[in-house]
């Protein structure tokens, strides 16, 4: 597992990549979201994927699962401290989620696209 650091405004976020099994479990959930978004010629639009995640994840379970390997200024992000960390920082949350999806799943979805997977060939509903 690798660690990635991203500075967003005044906060430093450290993201540890998921193990293969954990990542695959999350990828299975994300495919339902990715398949419902626009796929551009150059690949997956991860910003749209995260926007769709926010729309569909009403109980925040998948969002919290994505954040489970992330630290905000050295503090583990959990349901209990979520508000404290992200109050008045929803833009940072969105940027962090996009970063987490890119770090952990970029190769998965690009490979699926290259192989002609149904995941990446879904049509966007009008």
Automatic annotation (TrEMBL):
* Key words of the record: Plasmid
* A UniProt-annotated Pfam family: Phage_TAC_15
- InterPro entries referenced in this protein's UniProt entry, alphabetically: Phage_chap_TAC_15-like
What name goes with this protein?
Answer: Uncharacterized protein
User: Which organism encodes this protein?
Assistant: Candidatus Trichorickettsia mobilis
